[in-house]
Description:
By secondary structure, the protein is mainly β. It has a single domain, classed as Jelly Rolls (Sandwich), CATH 2.60.120. Helices cover 6% and strands 50% of the residues. It has 1 helix and 12 strands; from the N terminus they run E-E-E-E-E-E-E-E-E-E-E-E-H. The strands form 2 sheets. Strands 1, 2, 4, 6, 7, 8, 10 and 12 form an 8-stranded mixed β-sheet that branches. The protein has a 4-stranded antiparallel β-sheet with strand order 3-11-5-9, with no helix packed on it. The radius of gyration is 17 Å and the shape is globular. The protein starts with a strand and ends with a helix. Residues 176-191 have low confidence and may be disordered.
Amino acid sequence: MGLEFKQTDTVAPLGTVAACTSFPAASKMIAREAVETGIDGTGTPQFGASLPQSADERMVFFELDPGEDVPTGEHICRIRITTTNTALTWTECHVCYWNGSTWETTLGSVTGLGIVLDTAQTETATITGASAGPTYASSHRLYYLCLFDATGAHGSANANFTPDQLITTPIVAGGLGIPLVMHHRKQMAVN
């Protein structure tokens, strides 16, 4: 398991952009920042769609500063649903990479999630991602873009979440490819 980032109440600096996808925008989109150390979010922002909805729409976003090069591996995006709506289904999650001036690539995607938001609980999407290039710089960002479907609803479909979950990444502290605690032990053994 790599570094984990806490979701916060802070609005994501890049906002609710399409990022590395071409999916349409929902009528209510929420973008939050995730950080290595910080205070869990306590708010309950609302996201949703005005209907009719013709396709999956981007509704929830998480942005983080990876702080290191991003290797190939597993990303886990979690959303704690606090107000449910059976008309909304979490269908996809994409991991995008911003290199400071342009969207570099989609590192990974998971489709066909089919998670109906009918229970107030934490829902999870696991994405296998490629490595990101070029070499990390402080302006680089990882961006988690969550798509939802509400095609069966009438009028509008909204739900709320609390940004207090962890996003798990394949990033290794120190970028050495070994867990940080092992790195320290190895250095101690050499000294």
